[in-house]
């Protein structure tokens, strides 16, 4: 296990470095000049040159990359070209919105998907099993922003139950208000995410239901619930957990779109603003943090999977124990 | 959606709504008695990029800070007049080259430091310094030196006459530049000081108890920033904001029109939509071709389809709030036959083809499509090339690499750019350049007005650009609100007069 952890950590750091380099190069390939965001119509060529000098976009690329990497190693993400604020603390302030949004949405999606997916498989021949199956298929096709706008129209504009967007100025000082602001975005993401999760839970359950070992357990006298509990769930959980890891990462990234719809001051809106302003340090910072989060989630999902499934543990570490 | 789904959502929504405080309903307080302690919630699409207007703070910081947090020696009122603010009086020498300003006494910065002439001197020098990214820098080039002979006097020496100096100084914030980083904090003399700024979300201003003038009519303001107009209007409908600084979504107006809960006011804007030709290159180096294009496009019809009855067609670069405004819509009237004749005269009887660089945000793409279909009627083929604001800046503004482009020009008094042959559109007319230069050196406002009127008429006759229309300036507010600015000239938004109730 120790060697496995070491290898995975090295792989994680390597991926992060590769992602950082790729990000840096791709951003520089975009047309346009970050100095432009600072200037308005009427700026003179001297002012443009001065702006480039101030933000350092006139330095050689290799030098810019080197100093950015050196900063990363010190956990310093640099300073925004535009706001002149350090990027790290700004990201931390945004995570206060994005992390709860992602986690709440994820939990809600799982809470919806597990029972619905199970019923859709268990009762796949009944009308409501078919209906659940159909609805989840439809759900995959619907974009998140559309669901968000629909929810805003119903719950904010018509019923006036929830705010249409925004987040309290004092963040979580009043948790009730903060939760109220997150309600619609959370439901939006959870609905979209649960649609695809239901598909996975359903097919994993169908596999288990049709398996020989379940039939054998039943033949030996176990009740259906008992056989499901002892043998079925554990087997069905293995593929579902690996999908959950990917889904959690997707939720985190999907928050970008949903935050824009609900004008939440999260990481997603920060990224969108950064791109609009060609604010390289901001874009790089947000993407590095997101990449890191996604890699760590994948890592965690792997670990959980190995805990559930002894067969996976047996194959690691090169030799047999 | 299944009933189970709906049930889950509804239960969750209700539970969350119950534990929240119920959001912010509009109003509060009995009608007719303004609540001086009320906080005004302002919705805006323009978040500052940083807090310094000499470091690229942009339109947003002008909106939030001009007159509210920072004051200049002078102020441009909402109806376009220039008044003394931190300058109590001023004198101009006979040759027009020396301005002596007397400062108002008893003014303190938010930090508690007293305002002195040295602060005013540093403030002006910040704007004209090498590092300054101020949009006003180029209009202050005549300043040769700024002196502060005593604590109450500032002397500005010019290299040439500049009749707009006082007007331009209304955009120069008087700041206390010592000890604070002004890109992330502030130290001004205005009626409000900065409460907090939450990037991507809100900026709050609270009344400054030591203000030298009349205290604000409200208990503070909060600017809420949105990236799209729909979300902004939703916030107004749900009462999360009381007022929207500038309505940019014509379609959304319908839901407020005729609703007693809202007031809609239409003021004067200074934002012009331009079809700007590259006057350096064929075919648009030929005035006849430009005139033909101007006459071939039905500006009024486009305005009607975009803004449904709001806004106006002005026929040139000068908006009605500038003293040198004149209705020039008849110079290049909408007349397809005339356009065809002019094209034939210029040797383009069979038309031609050009690429129109079109910024990717509203209303440019709509306008581009309309122009394309209008010009097709006179045999001109338009290739629409959609670009980002950033690409526009590099390709069109800096490199002058374009045939024609669409762009909104937001400032007042910006007809003077036609006197600069190096500006992106490359209009080069010696007579116009001279008039505009002489206007700046004029001895009286009348003389200045006369010269700029001539220049404006000439660029219209030359169709230096095609001025499509002047945007409307529409403010939508909850009906219990009063005292807000309706023109918002140059993105300013004085908040201290706003009352609730």
List the helices and strands and how they pair.
The complex is a heterodimer of chains A (321) and B (501).
Chain A (H helix, E strand, L loop, with lengths): L1 H28 L15 H11 L5 H13 L13 H36 L4 H15 L2 H15 L16 H35 L2 H8 L4 H38 L5 H10 L3 H29 L1 H5 L7
Helix pairs in contact in A: 1-11, 4-5, 4-7, 4-9, 5-7, 6-7, 6-9, 7-9, 8-9, 9-10, 9-11, 10-11
Chain B lengths: L2 H17 L20 E5 L13 H8 L8 E3 L5 E3 L2 E6 L5 E6 L13 H12 L14 E8 L2 E6 L6 H5 L22 E7 L3 E6 L13 E5 L3 H9 L5 E2 L17 E6 L4 E6 L9 H10 L2 H9 L28 H10 L7 E7 L4 H13 L4 E7 L1 H10 L5 E6 L20 H11 L4 H17 L4 E5 L2 E6 L2 E2 L16 E2 L1
Parallel strand pairs in B: 1-10, 1-11, 14-15, 14-16
Antiparallel strand pairs in B: 2-3, 4-5, 5-7, 6-7, 8-9, 9-10, 11-18, 12-18, 13-16, 13-17, 19-20
How would you characterize the overall build of this protein?
The complex is a heterodimer of chains A (321) and B (501). Chain A is built from 12 helices and no strands. By secondary structure, chain A is mainly α. Chain A has 2 domains: 1-74, no CATH class; 96-313, MetI-like fold. Mean pLDDT of chain A is 84; it is low at 317-321. Chain B is an alpha+beta fold. Chain B is 26% helix and 21% strand. Chain B has helices spanning 3-19, 58-65, 117-128, 165-169, 229-237, 287-296, 299-307, 336-345, 364-376, 389-398, 430-440, 445-461, and strands at residues 40-44, 74-76, 82-84, 87-92, 98-103, 143-150, 153-158, 192-198, 202-207, 221-225, 243-244, 262-267, 272-277, 353-359, 381-387, 404-409, 466-470, 473-478, 481-482, 499-500. Chain B has a 7-stranded mixed β-sheet, with helices on one face. In chain B, strands 15-14-16-13-17 form a 5-stranded mixed β-sheet. Chain B has a 4-stranded antiparallel β-sheet with strand order 4-5-7-6, with helices on one face. In chain B, helix 6 (287-296) runs antiparallel to helix 8 and helix 11 packs antiparallel against helix 12. Chain B is globular, with a radius of gyration of 25 Å. Chains A and B meet through helix 2, helix 4, helix 5, helix 6 and helix 7 of A and helix 1, strand 10, helix 5 and helix 10 of B.
């Amino acid at each position: 296990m120790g060697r496995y952890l070491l290898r995975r950590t090295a792989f994680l750091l390597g991926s992060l470095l590769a992602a950082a380099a790729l990000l840096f190069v791709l951003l520089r390939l975009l047309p346009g000049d970050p100095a432009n965001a600072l200037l308005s119509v009427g700026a003179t060529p001297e002012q443009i040159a001065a702006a480039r000098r101030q933000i350092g976009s006139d330095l050689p690329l290799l030098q810019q990359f080197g100093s950015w990497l050196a900063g990363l190693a010190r956990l310093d993400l640099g300073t925004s070209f535009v706001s002149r604020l350090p990027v790290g603390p700004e990201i931390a302030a945004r995570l206060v919105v994005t992390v709860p949004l992602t986690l709440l949405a994820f939990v809600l999606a799982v809470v919806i998907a597990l029972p619905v997916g199970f019923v859709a498989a268990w009762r796949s021949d009944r009308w409501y099993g078919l209906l659940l199956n159909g609805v989840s298929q439809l759900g995959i096709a619907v974009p998140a922003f559309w669901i968000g706008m629909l929810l805003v129209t119903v719950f904010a504009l018509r019923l006036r139950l929830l705010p249409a967007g925004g987040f309290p100025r004092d963040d979580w000082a009043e948790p009730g208000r903060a939760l109220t602001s997150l309600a619609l975005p959370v439901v939006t993401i959870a609905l979209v995410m649960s649609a695809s999760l239901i598909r996975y839970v359903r097919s994993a359950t169908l596999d288990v239901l049709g398996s020989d070992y379940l039939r054998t357990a039943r033949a030996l006298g176990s009740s259906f619930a008992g056989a499901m509990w002892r043998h079925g769930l554990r087997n069905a959980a293995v593929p579902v957990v690996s999908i959950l890891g990917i889904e959690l990462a997707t939720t985190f990234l999907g928050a970008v779109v949903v935050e824009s719809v609900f004008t939440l001051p999260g990481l997603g809106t920060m990224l969108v603003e950064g791109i609009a302003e060609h604010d390289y340090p901001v874009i790089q910072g947000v993407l590095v943090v997101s990449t890191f989060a996604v890699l760590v989630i994948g890592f965690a999902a792997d670990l959980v999977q190995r805990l559930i499934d002894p067969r996976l543990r047996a194959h690691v570490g090169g030799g047999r124990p | 959606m299944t009933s189970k789904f709906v049930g889950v959502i509804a239960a969750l929504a209700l539970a969350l709504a119950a534990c929240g405080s119920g959001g912010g309903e509009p109003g509060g307080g009995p009608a007719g008695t303004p609540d001086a302690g009320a906080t005004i919630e302002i919705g805006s699409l323009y978040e500052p990029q940083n807090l310094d207007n000499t470091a690229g703070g942009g339109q947003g910081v002008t909106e939030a800070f001009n007159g509210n947090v920072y004051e200049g020696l002078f102020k441009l009122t909402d109806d376009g007049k220039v008044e003394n603010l931190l300058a109590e009086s001023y004198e101009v020498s006979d040759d027009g080259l020396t301005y002596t300003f007397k400062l108002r006494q008893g003014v303190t910065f938010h930090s508690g430091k007293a305002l002195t002439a040295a602060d005013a001197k540093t403030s002006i020098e910040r704007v004209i310094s090498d590092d300054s990214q101020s949009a006003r820098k180029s209009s202050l080039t005549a300043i040769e030196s700024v002196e502060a002979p005593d604590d109450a006097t500032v002397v500005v020496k010019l290299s040439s006459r500049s009749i707009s100096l006082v007007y331009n100084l209304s955009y120069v914030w008087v700041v206390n530049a010592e000890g604070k980083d002004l890109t992330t904090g502030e130290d001004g003399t205005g009626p409000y000081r900065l409460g907090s700024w939450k990037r991507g979300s809100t900026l709050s201003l609270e009344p400054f108890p030591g203000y030298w003038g009349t205290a604000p009519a409200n208990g503070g303001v909060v600017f809420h920033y949105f990236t799209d107009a729909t979300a902004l209007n939703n916030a107004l409908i749900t009462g999360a904001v009381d007022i929207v600084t500038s309505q940019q979504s014509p379609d959304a107006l319908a839901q407020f029109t005729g609703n007693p809960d809202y007031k809609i006011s239409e003021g004067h804007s200074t934002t012009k939509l331009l079809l700007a030709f590259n006057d350096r290159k064929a075919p648009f180096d030929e005035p006849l071709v430009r005139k033909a294009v101007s006459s071939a496009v039905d500006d009024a019809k486009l305005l009607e389809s975009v803004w449904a009855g709001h806004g106006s067609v002005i026929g040139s670069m000068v908006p009605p709030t500038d003293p040198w405004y004149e209705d020039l819509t008849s110079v290049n009237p909408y007349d397809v036959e005339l356009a065809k004749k002019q094209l034939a005269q210029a040797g383009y009887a069979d038309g031609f083809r050009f690429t129109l660089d079109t910024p990717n945000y509203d209303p440019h793409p709509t306008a581009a499509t309309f122009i394309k279909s209008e010009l097709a009627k006179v045999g001109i083929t338009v290739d629409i090339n959609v670009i980002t604001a950033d690409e526009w800046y590099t390709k069109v503004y800096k490199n002058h690499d374009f045939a024609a482009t669409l762009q909104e020009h937001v400032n007042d008094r910006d007809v003077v750019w036609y006197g600069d042959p190096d500006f992106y559109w490359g209009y080069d007319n010696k007579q116009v350049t001279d008039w505009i230069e002489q206007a700046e050196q004029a001895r009286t406002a009348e003389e200045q007005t006369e010269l700029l009127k001539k220049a404006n008429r000439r660029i219209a006759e030359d169709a230096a650009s095609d001025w499509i229309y002047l945007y409307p300036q529409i403010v939508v507010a909850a009906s219990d609100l009063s005292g807000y600015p309706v023109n918002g000239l140059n993105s300013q938004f004085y908040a201290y007069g706003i009352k609730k109730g």
